[in-house]
Amino acid sequence: MISPVKDQTRLTDFQLVLLNLSSLVRIDLSSNQFKGMLPSNMSSLSKLESFDINENLFSRPVPSSLFMIPSLIKLNLGRNHFTGPLEILNFFSSQYNLSKLYIGENNFSGPIPGSISKLVGLSELSLSFWNTGGDIVDFSIFLHLKSLTSLDLSGIHMNISSTLHLPSSMRNLVLSSCKIDEFPKFLQNHTSLYSLDISANQIKGQLPEWLWSLPELGYVNIAHNSFSGELTVLPNSTVDSFIASDNQFSGEIPRAICEVGTLDLSNNNFSGSIPRCFGVSNTSLSILHLRNNSLSGVIPEESLHGYLRSLDVGLNRLSGQLPKSLINCSYLQFLNLEDNRINDKFPFWLSSLPNLQILVLRSNDFYGPNSFS
């Protein structure tokens, strides 16, 4: 096994050693600054099971020999500068053992090869930001991959039928920046889904209530869409992280959402007060971002729990004094109260918070000495 290399060794010098190690089972060169092209005779590594060069500067076409190693289980070429069409995927066959394929965030172009459907053993697949030249990709080409647990198609213009049925094993689905204009209705009966990212699309209207009833759902990101109306959250939901910033939600923040550990409702049209249930019924709240809404009243003492790491309530209409319960938030790193109507003495007592890194108090009515000494 070769683990991540953290020096600037020239790949051309390293190739000679690498390709002579024919018994290698795992190669991990991820998160370096290697550049150039991969050697053409990669198939000499006939026992290779895992090849990970994620997040480097490799470029040029991927050699077809890499796709001819039958022992490969994991192949990660993501976040490089590889180019060209990937017709070389045709070298794969359904008999191969490949389980994890990450080739997203490169400069691949052209149609997504239909041969991808041959890789029936895939459990994880990332094709994110593939340049299809403006062509719309039909989601159904992935339905033959019955073993998929994770699929990332970010940045690809997708055509998604409401009658689709995901593989029952699917746990993580990323459809960010796919030009989707309707909430994927086919998810309604998908009871095994844990993580859903449909951010940065063009979805309008209300968020469907049935989303909260999916029994395994833990992470939801619907940021940067055009959802509107009141946010209705069903009680006893399993969702622990909910990211809904940059939408058009209005009305009051529902109390049922107080159970989450991460909540971002920034840049919406919420009104009313901050629910007092944050931190009362939930001891795991770590991120609470309510920036740029129309919230009024005071920041409730009860909302500030000891595990809170980031609190952003800037650009609202909050008033009153800064809650002294902040003193109990020993993990707090980020606190933004800007552009509110808070009237209080300068909170010098915040200096006792050991992890506080960023403090923004501007455009309020703080007064008195401003020394932390």
Automatic annotation (TrEMBL):
One Pfam family, short name: LRR_1
Domain of life: Eukaryota
Keyword Transmembrane listed: yes
Lipid bilayer topology: Single-pass type I membrane protein
The UniProt record lists the keyword Iron: no
Gene3D superfamilies: Ribonuclease Inhibitor
Cellular localisation: Membrane
Entry keyword set: Glycoprotein, Membrane, Receptor, Signal, Transmembrane, Transmembrane helix
PANTHER family found in the cross-reference section: DISEASE RESISTANCE LIKE PROTEIN (PTHR48061:SF12), LEUCINE-RICH REPEAT RECEPTOR PROTEIN KINASE EMS1-LIKE-RELATED (PTHR48061)
Descriptive protein name: Receptor-like protein 12
Organism: Camelina sativa (False flax)
Gene for this chain: LOC104733696
